[in-house]
Amino acid sequence: NGWFMDFDTRQAAYWPMLSGAMGHTYGNHNIWQMWQPGRDPISSARTPWREAVGHIGSTHVGYMRRFFEARPWTLLRPATDQFQGDNPEGPMHQRMAVAEDGSYLVAYAPYGTPLILDLGMIDASDRRAYWFDPRTGTAAEIRDLPPEGAHTFTPPGAPGRGNDWVLLVEDAAQGWDAPSGDLG
Questions:
Q1: pLDDT tens string 124-181
Q2: By three-state DSSP, how is residue 89 classified?
Q3: How would DSSP label each residue in 104-122?
Q4: Of 61, 54, 170, whose CA–CA distance to 119 is shortest?
Q5: How far, in Å, CA of 180 to CA of 18, rounded?
Q6: Which residues of 129-165 are buried (b: 16+ CB within 10 A; e: fewer)?
Q7: Helices of type H across 2-140
C-alpha cells in the first residue's frame, strides 16, 4: 500500500551493500521532517518522529551495520554473476560480494530461496559458514561443508517474502568471531 515494511528496508539495504555501495543510509519520512501532530506532513508522514525513531527498520539496519563492520567490508567486490544456476529476476534476485583477498563472501537471499555457489571463491582449506538472520541480528553456523566445489545453501524456513537470510562463508584461519548484529 505504498509503505515500506521491515522487509523492504532490509532488502533496500543489503542489495546495494553487496553491489559495490560504500555504505547505506536509513531514511524515514517521519524523522527527517521531525513530524508531529499539529504540523502539516510532507510526503505522507503519519507517525510522530519520536515514535518513528524506534521503528523496526532502524533496528534492522543497525544489525546490518554491525554485521558488515565485523569484517573488512571495504574489500567486498560484487560477485552476483558468480552464482551457479539461475538467479531469479525482480524482488527475489539474490546478491553476492566476495572479498578481493578471497577471505570471505556474503550472499543475500531476499526470499529465502537456495543459494548455489562455488566454495572455491574462498581461498582456504578450512571454511566456516553462517546463516545470519537480518531480523534478529543472530547467526547459526552451518556444519558439514564440502571441501570444495559447488554447494547449495538452503536458508532456514519456508521461502517467501520476509524470510530473507544472509549467508557468510569465510576462511576459518582468519579467526573472526561469529557474525552478530548485537547492538549492545
A1: 999 999 999 999 999 999 998 988 899 999 999 999 999 999 999 999 999 999 999 8
A2: coil
A3: EEEEEETT---EEEEGGGS
A4: 170
A5: 18
A6: bbbbbbbebbbeebeebeeeeebebebeeeeeeebbb
A7: 6-17, 29-32, 49-52, 56-69
CB atoms within 10 A of CB 128: 20
Tell me the average pLDDT across 69-82: 96
What pLDDT digit, counting tens, does each position of 22-39 carry?
A: 888 887 888 888 999 999
Can you tell me the distance from the alpha carbon of 104 to that of 36, in angstroms, rounded to the nearest whole number? 44
- 184 pLDDT above the threshold of 80: no
CA atoms of 70 and 106, how far apart (whole Å):
12
Q: For residues 32-71, b (16+ Cβ closer than 10 Å) or e, as one string? A: eeebeeeeeeeeebebbbeebeebebbbbbebbbebbebb
Query: What is this structure's pTM?
Result: 0.92
Tell me which H or E stretch contains 146: none
| Widest distance between CA atoms in the chain | 62
**Residues counted in the chain:** 184
CA 81 to chain centre: 17
Q: Is 78 exposed, middle or buried (0-12, 13-18, 19+ CB in 10 A)?
A: middle
